[in-house]
């Protein structure tokens, strides 16, 4: 019989490195190693580790550390291994959580990943945040993973200027330089972007900009997508 504990909480001692938000009436620490030792002692095969919200609020970094140190074959890993067997690309959305997305990609170097929405959190309604491209350095570093491509989708929602959104081109140029046009898949992200742009406004800036050569435009707006998904629409 496989025994799985459906909810455990592990945590470090309350230190300036990772301070607690509240101090509950719990032991001074129950680290991941200590939790696993307790499970081993009574024959528990695995557990669902829930980050202690009362202590760490929305910071799940310790849970991530413990999972990496004590992996238990999560379902997502099984899916990614199966994708390799069937030669299927896997779309992932890791905006606001690029570090976790990067670790997942690194753990599965044989899986083909397609990263949604530039891996940058995008607003559903205007205006864009004051620093919409703040995560760009992480996105550029992510380009080192050759088993990944990136969707340049929803980029217009990151503009703080009116149509045709001229301020998107400098940061996008850095994306193109890091990833290469053959690994950048243009997309409108319509209708999620409905409150920011209509469909034509999401298309025209890419069709008409002088920041792209004809060959770059062809790869960005179709060629890279056909390559990544190994599919292209038939001409009627």
Can you give a write-up of this model?
With about 240 residues, the protein is α/β, with parallel strands linked by helices. The protein folds into 2 domains: about 5-70, no CATH class; about 75-230, Alpha-Beta Barrel (TIM Barrel). Helices cover about 40% and strands about 10% of the residues. The protein has 9 helices and 6 strands; from the N terminus they run βαβαααβαβαβαβαα. The chain has helices at about 30-40, 55, 60-70, 75-85, 100-105, 135-140, 170-180, 200-210, 215-230, and strands at about 5-10, 45-50, 90, 115, 150-155, 185. A 4-stranded parallel β-sheet has the order 3-4-5-6. The relative contact order is 0.09.
Write out the CATH superfamily name of the largest domain: Metal-dependent hydrolases
Instruction: Please tell me the total number of domains.
Output: 2
Percent of sequence in beta strands? 5-15%
- Mean pLDDT comes to 91
CATH class of the largest domain: Alpha Beta
Helix content percent band:
25-40%
Number of helices, counting only DSSP H or I runs of 4 residues or more = 9
Q: Find the structural class using helix and strand composition.
A: alpha/beta
Strand order of the largest sheet: 3-4-5-6
Find the CATH topology of the largest domain. TIM Barrel
Instruction: List low-confidence stretches.
Output: none
């Amino acid at each position: 019989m496989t025994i799985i504990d459906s909810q455990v909480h592990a945590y470090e001692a309350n230190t300036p490195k990772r301070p607690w938000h509240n101090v509950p009436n719990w032991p001074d620490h129950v680290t991941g190693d200590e939790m696993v030792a307790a499970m081993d002692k009574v024959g528990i095969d695995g557990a669902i580790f829930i980050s202690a919200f009362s202590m760490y609020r929305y910071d799940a970094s310790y849970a991530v550390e413990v999972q990496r140190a004590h992996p238990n074959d999560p379902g997502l890993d099984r899916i990614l291994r199966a994708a390799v067997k069937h030669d299927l690309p896997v779309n992932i959305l890791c905006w606001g959580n690029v570090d976790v997305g990067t670790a997942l990609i690194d753990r599965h170097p044989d899986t083909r990943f397609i990263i949604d929405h530039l891996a940058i959190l995008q607003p559903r309604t205007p205006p864009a945040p004051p620093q919409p491209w703040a995560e760009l350095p992480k996105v550029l570093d992510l380009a080192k993973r050759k088993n990944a491509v990136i969707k340049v989708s929803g980029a217009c929602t990151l503009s703080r200027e009116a149509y045709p959104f001229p301020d998107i081109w400098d940061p996008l140029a850095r994306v193109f330089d890091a990833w290469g046009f053959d690994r950048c898949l243009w997309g409108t992200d319509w209708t999620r972007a409905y409150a920011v742009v209509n469909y034509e406004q999401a298309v025209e800036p890419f069709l008409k900009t002088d920041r792209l050569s004809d060959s770059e435009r062809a790869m960005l707006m179709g060629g890279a997508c056909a390559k990544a998904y190994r599919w292209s629409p038939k001409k009627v």
